[in-house]
Amino acid sequence: MIQVFRKELNSFLNSLIAYVVIGFFLAAIGLLVWVFPETSVLDSEYAGLDTLFTFAPYVFVFLIPAITMRSFSEETKLGTLELLLTKPLTDWDVVLGKFLASFALVCIALVPTVLYYFTVSRLGNPAGNLDTSGIAGSYIGLLLLAAIFCAVGVLASGLTSNQIVAFVLASFTCFLLYTGFDSLSTIPATAQFALSLQSAGILSHYESISKGVIDSRDVVYFLSVCAGVLLLTKTILSSRSW
User: Which residues of the chain have pLDDT under 50?
Assistant: First the structure.
């Protein structure tokens, strides 16, 4: 697994896509947090990072599939996947190595946003008047959400040799998992199942963690969905092995 992780991460960092994706993420979030009047912290009545944690998941819907779309698709197209599977690696080594590499790149993209915390803390009145526990919880929620999106992206890449198709499929699935169930719960015909539908989606669990209270049920939800998607990816990969 370590070999695959290093290979994938080095491949990301040695290509232009990693820097373009990270640059796009930081530019988009920076504009939302500091520039656009409707969402800018500078135009808000209080100092906080609500804008970051509200809009980052929507940026991730496009950012993470752009990172993961080449995971298996490129190797399938080039015919190197079969060669990879003949090496002394288990299917789990390959799946987890690619998943962790994409997740590590997302973590790298998030690191500069920590500077926002220190910047915004100076804008408070008094300085440092921030909900630190809520912000910490939001970062944990964002990382857990990113883990699910990375798993979905790797799965989508394993389903097709076309990177564009993998990107579209992953983006749609991530968006559906994040807001789809919550939107379905607002339909009158599903009123009696509203709570169950909300619990099946990511949004309610993400909002719960963002309050700064780490509920084990929310953590188990994120880890279970991530593990389930990775298991499905491994099953698909195993079906191609010979």
Answer: 241-242
